[in-house]
Amino acid sequence: MFLCLNQGYVIHMPTINLDNQDLKVACDRTFDGIAEFKIPFSFQSGLAFLVGSCNGLLCFSDFRLQNSLINNAFFGFNAVYLWNPSIRKFKKLPDTCLSQLHLAKLGFAQHSQKNDYKVVRISRPFTEPMPPLKAEVYTLSSDSWKRVGISWRPNVVFYKFSCVKPFPFVSGHLHWMLDMIEDGGGQEMRYIEMILSFDVNSEKFKKLPLPDDHSFKDGKNLTSVKEKLALAKFEQQPHGMLCCVWVMREYGVCESWNKLCVVPIVTHTCFIGYTKYGSLLIQKKTQEIYSLEDKYVLIDPETLYEKETSIQAIHPLVIATRTENLALLDGANVISY
Questions:
Q1: Known Pfam families for this protein (predicted)?
Q2: Which of 58, 103, 154, 166 has its CA 20 to 30 A from that of 119?
Q3: Cβ contact 109:202 at 8 Å
């Protein structure tokens, strides 16, 4: 894992080595590591997941909570932590208010109107037929969870979250991307792609359509570019892959989706994300499996200039911007170290 303590990035690498839960300080432009820190807490599975970063606070959950189809609450994988390394404090969140957490996706955001912080958790039981999603919100100031409603299409027979990276917090909203199949009522099943948006201030969900682009269909990642909602789509080519980036110029206005660039990249590549300067960070794999010989490269989308970073990691990374802040963690379950 890499963590920048001033102006820069949280760069997180999951690891199963319980004795080596490290953080490294990384520069904001070059991603060169300059220091190391120990994570002051651990998870039952041994795998931490970076939920997000807001105003100096980091949010981590158990990797199993984000990506497992087992009953996470029953097996004790529902731990979520907030951590401010600047003041050397962390806090374990209270247990969920939902009875079952067979599959859960979390987002972390700042409530700007009240200078507060919220964790949003969306989950569903693993049953057939698929039940609607359920959602709850944790608020730091009250140190409690509460249920919130999600309007749901009545004919959905299958759905899945189509991205495993941290969900972008843009324009006061958290965003999840869903692939769904609807029963056509005697006609053919309908395949639907959509963005589920959560307004942190009003605590309301709404739906946003993706850009109308069917030419890039070999994968997609919801992200942000220079504080705007963005979508990276991929298409396999005979000698590599193309990455097409769309940006929503005016938030919430579907017609404002604009194609930013198309970047050619090598075949064995893992998309990591965009930096706040607009550079694309990718992992170039030397082979199908992950290796320490893999290279992490910054690409300028305009000039296509590539700069190799000093990051060395076997597992794929996730990134989030972070600014050092003295935001307090108070109340129950707060530990200083």
A1: FBA_1 (PF07734)
A2: 154
A3: no
What is the three-class DSSP state of 193? Answer: strand
Compute the distance between CA of residue 137 and CA of residue 123 in angstroms, rounded to an integer. Answer: 12
pTM of the entire predicted model: 0.87
pLDDT for 2 beyond 60: no
Stretch 175-195: mean pLDDT, rounded? 83
- At residue 157, what is the residue type? V
The pLDDT of residue 63 is above 60: yes
Using an 8 Å Cβ cutoff, are 49 and 62 in contact? yes
| 138-58-223 Cα angle (round to 5) | 90
Residue 140 and residue 82 in contact, taking contact as beta carbons nearer than 8 Å: yes
- The Cα–Cα gap between 57 and 52 comes to 9
Query: How distant, in Å, are the alpha carbons of 83, 85, 124, 230, 327 from that of 91?
Result: 6, 11, 26, 31, 13
